[in-house]
Amino acid sequence: MSFDLFLSWTAAIYWVVAMTLLAMSIVGTVLQPRIAARRATRRDQPPVSIVLPVKLLEEGFERTQESALAQDYPCFDVTVSATEPESPAVASMRELFARHSERPSRVLLSTARFAASPKVDNLYAPFMQANHDVILMKDANVLLEPDALAEHLRQLTDDVGLVCAIPYCDRLDNFASHVEAAIINGPHARMLFLASCLGQGHGVGKIMLFRRSDFLRAGGFDAISHTVGEDNALAKAMRRIGKRPVFSHRPVRQELGSRAFEDVYQRQLRWSVIRRNDELLSFLLEPICQAFPAVIAGAFAAPLIGWTPFSGFAVTFLVWFALETLLSMAKGWQLSLTAPAVFVVREAMMLAVWVNAWMTDRVVWAKDKVHARVAAQPAPPAQKEG
Q: What are 224-279's pLDDT values in tens digits?
């Protein structure tokens, strides 16, 4: 067999695998809410402590944070944790608390400094001082529907240790935010939906619902303080004590607003470095979920069926783009007339991020440079937080 023929057959096999995975993940994305809903069998509604770590006051902050206070749920309290006693974000939260005076709420100053991730440091005080065993942590840019807490809690059955929700992006106000949404709503969401259909769960930190008793039995903060991927570390810790991480049947809406390309790139790089450190096999296989390698494979494989390389390239590009666009329309996700350009820029950015992730451990978190994985200090006693 000549080298050209070997290359064409190798490309053809890769193309078939990539396109099959694309089709399976699209089907999984459509079916996941119904499949996961069948697993949501819990009916009681125990009291819950909602934890909101805050740092920056970004666009849409008030709307997304107020959604946590407006839950249609019988008994819950809300704790804000911050590393600064006063900041624009803390001031905004105090105004929201005054607006919802019927809801038990407080602000905790988090002074812990022991973890690789500043977010983990910020979560120490509210997790350890929560009033209730069941805790829901929510990121600042996630908007909860009024019944979200009740619906997600249905997944926290006896054998489940962690409930996360698959995020999708909305309120896209500029081209960069459309690119980020194309990444999150595209390959990232599709593979998570498919994993959920297959009964797999992973840590995705936009929301995390768990029992503090399980968290402490799984090692507590010592089990998650070594990495900026605390969500994935928590999922692994729960598995070690025989508790499954699962994805909820309800996705969560992540509002992007306007984005800067540099911020989008740095955020994707951080997540990619985390996957390289914590889920190497998944990281190695990421390119097969992306369109650009499949498009190149289509060009090399095309001569096997008598097509020109350009035809293989163009057909693969158009089919991939069309399928993702139809999926977004079916799910009601926001699209724009610039979708073809967004698709091209997304593929270029994802490839650049994947290559760059091999070469660095320094990542950006909330405007600060941090090391993605360090030797963390032991978690401090709870009483040192106030």
A: 998 888 999 999 999 999 999 999 999 999 999 999 999 999 999 999 998 998 88
Cβ neighbour number for residue 177 with a 10 Å cutoff: 24
CA distance 27 to 113: 44
Q: Which residues of 279-314 are buried (b: 16+ CB within 10 A; e: fewer)?
A: beeebeebbebbbbbbbbbbbbbbbeeebeeeebbb
DSSP state of 287: G
State the amino acid at position 203 in one-letter form.
Answer: G
Cβ-based burial of 167 (10 A; exposed 0-12, middle 13-18, buried ≥19): buried
- For residue 194, the SS3 value is helix
Instruction: Outline where the chain has alpha helix (H).
Output: 3-38, 61-69, 88-99, 118-128, 148-153, 175-183, 189-197, 212-217, 230-240, 261-278, 280-285, 291-301, 309-331, 339-357
At 51, phi and psi to the nearest 5?
-115, 130
The pairing of beta strand 207-211 with beta strand 76-82: unpaired
User: Residue 173: which of 257, 287, 58 has the closest Cα?
Assistant: 257
322 Cβ contact partners less than 8 Å away, ≥ 6 residues apart: none
Q: What is the pLDDT of residues 115-164, one digit of tens each?
A: 888 889 999 999 999 999 999 999 999 999 999 999 999 999 999 999 99
The CA-based diameter of the chain, rounded to the nearest angstrom, is 76
Write out the two tokens for 30. 């459509």
Helix axes 3-38, 309-331, angle to 10 degrees: 10
